[in-house]
Amino acid sequence: MSRRHALAKRLAGLTDIGDILAAMKSLALMETRRLGEFMESQRRRVATIEAAAADFLAWHAELAPAPAAGHELCLVIGSQHGFCGDYNDAMVGYLQRRCGKDTDMPTRWVVLGERLSSRLADDPRLMLALPGATVAHEVPAVLPRLSREIGRLLASSELAGHGFSVLHHCAERDDICLRRLLPLRDLPPPAPASHPPDLNLSPTDFLAGLQQHYLHAALNEAIYSALLVENRQRQNHMDRALNRLDETIERLRLAANRQRQEDITEEIELLLLAGEAAQPAGQGLAPP
């Protein structure tokens, strides 16, 4: 009976785990839908700013000189929590492949997300690790601190003249993408114009304000995009885990049923043996 009780206890524990996994899957699904709605508006916002920047820099390209190759501070976005498949593994693999071969890759990193930063803690290129967002409504709280720290680093003498990029999982391309943000570059072609834009500010002040708005919008889009991919992978991860758990539970149920049948058979055999032992000596023998 002890084995049967052990099987029943394990089945109960796995059932509880299944309930937790199902709840995590449901949360990931809801977050995926919520983030999908955010992404469309964020893409439109970034595209509008990029179009304005392209028109402006078509007349003032000297205000946004490209940094030297490799002189780049990069925000690398990972996950704050686990249970998201190979999300962080893919980012670490990308960094290992590209940074060893591509001399134009960023040489300084700010990592967002404790799960990824713990994997890169010993890398000399890591300058700062910050906690990331776990759900969409945490992004507005994460972004101000992130912006302050990036501004502080870019203003330091060590990173003078460095550009700024972001490396993240891209929901639209379903891949990891490196986006170079500051100074403004990799912009769409400017609209044809015969005269420069009419500004109420000096070109330098206008560019400073434009870059500030663009950085805020682009970081929002990158973090939301990374969170969307993370929750997609978490949902798939939970699906696979639930399938394996269902198979395990089914095997244990079959084992528990077999054990129950064996226990019943054993009890019947013990009862029969006890009945035979209780019969008086000579009972059932024919009289002489």
What do you see in this structure?
The protein has a domain of 177 residues: ATP synthase, F1 complex, gamma subunit (Pyruvate Kinase, Chain: A, domain 1). It contains 5 helices and 5 strands. The chain has a 5-stranded mixed beta sheet. α2 links the parallel β1 and β2. The chain is elongated, with a radius of gyration of 31 Å.
Question: Which helices and strands appear, and what pairs or packs with what?
Answer:
Elements: H1 2-57, E1 72-77, H2 87-99, E2 108-112, H3 114-119, E3 126-130, H4 139-155, E4 163-170, E5 175-182, H5 203-278
Parallel strand pairs: 1-2, 1-4, 2-3
Antiparallel strand pairs: 4-5
Quick structural summary:
With 288 residues, this protein is α/β, with parallel strands linked by helices.
Q: Which structural traits does this protein have?
A:
five-stranded mixed beta sheet; alpha/beta; Pyruvate Kinase, Chain: A, domain 1; 288 residues; 5 helices
Order of helices and strands: HEHEHEHEEH
Assign an overall shape: elongated
Give the C-alpha Rg: 31 Å
Residues in helices, as a percent range: 55-70%
Instruction: Characterize the largest beta sheet: strand count, sense, and whether it forms a barrel.
Output: 5 strands, mixed
CATH-defined architecture of the domain at 42-185 and 202-234: 3-Layer(aba) Sandwich
Our count of helices gives 5
- The fold-level CATH name of the domain at 42-185 and 202-234 is Pyruvate Kinase, Chain: A, domain 1
Tell me, rounded to a whole number, the average pLDDT: 88
Based on secondary structure, the structural category is alpha/beta
Strand segment tally:
5
CATH class bucket of the domain at 42-185 and 202-234: Alpha Beta
Beta-strand level of the residues, as a percent range?
5-15%
Classified in CATH, the superfamily of the domain at 42-185 and 202-234 is ATP synthase, F1 complex, gamma subunit
Uncertain residue ranges: none
Amino- and carboxy-terminal Cα gap? 47 Å
Could you give the order of strands across the largest sheet? 3-2-1-4-5
